[in-house]
Amino acid sequence: MDLKALWNKQPTEDIPDTKELFGKADAIKKQTRNKLIKLNLMLLATTAFILYIGFNIDNEQTTTKIGIVLVVAAMVSYLIAYNQLIPMLFKSDMEGSSQEYLNQLIRIKRKHEFLNKVMINIYFALLSVGMALYMLQFALRMTHAWAIFWYTVTFAWIAFSWFYLRPRGIKKKLKPLNDMIARLEAVNGQLGDSE
Questions:
Q1: In this predicted model, what pLDDT tens digit does every residue of 11-61 receive, in sequence order?
Q2: CA atoms within 13 A on the CB side of 58
Q3: Taking the model in full, what pTM does it have?
């Protein structure tokens, strides 16, 4: 059985253009990189705003200061972890083989999975505890009904973000990457069969 002859008989429309795949993969990486840059700007602005509030509001209780520190720590740790993706996203090896490019995309996917499983858990834990401690000073000045209302609203939003927005965002982020990896694996499988 001559595999080379079988490969040559295969219709050409079944063989995707690797340059086109690399271009689409680069577009996905560029889109991810741009989202990461926007996330950096947004979290840095939010952190600066929180620090401004922390320094300009009379924080009578230590819990308020600890809350501010925890919220800022959540945002900074999230940024530090996510910014480890930047070198991978700026690295583009269009001249390499499709296997090397596939391996690069798989490394990016694994990093995304780690960040989505571990770092987001740390982020939400620090943010939740920080918000609870920060709000304590102001909740003590309110009636019990208002304090319960504001804690409920705040933690309902965090729960909504955790249980609904987070899984949806993770799927949305990973879907194009998973699709591109599957397509490159198919190309590598076809090219591997031809050798």
A1: 555 555 667 777 787 888 888 888 889 989 999 999 999 999 888 887 788
A2: 1
A3: 0.76
Quote the distance between the C-alpha of residue 116 and its chain's center.
6
HSE-up (13 A, CA, CB side) for residue 118: 9
The residue to which tokens 């680069």 are assigned: 26
- In the chain, the amino acid numbered 76 is V
Q: Quote the CA–CA distance of 169 and 87 in Å, as a whole number.
A: 22
Of residues 173 and 151, more confidence is placed in 151
Among the residue ranges 17-31, 148-162, 168-182, the one predicted with the least confidence is 17-31
Which amino acid does the sequence have at 169? G
Q: Which of 107, 18, 194, 92 is nearest to 115 (CA)?
A: 107
Helix (H/G/I), strand (E/B), else coil: 1: coil
Whether 63 and 133 have beta carbons less than 8 Å apart is answered as yes
Neighbour-count burial of 145, counting CB atoms closer than 10 A to its CB (0-12 exposed, 13-18 middle, 19+ buried): exposed
Q: What are the DSSP calls for the chain, one per residue? A: --HHHHHHHS-GGGS--HHHHHHHHHHHHHHHHHHHHHHHHHHHHHHHHHHHHHHHS---SHHHHHHHHHHHHHHHHHHHHHGGGHHHHH---TTS-HHHHHHHHHHHHHHHHHIIIIIHHHHHHHHHHHHHHHHHHHHTTS-HHHHHHHHHHHHHHHHHIIIIIHHHHHHHHHHHHHHHHHHHHHHHHHHHHH-
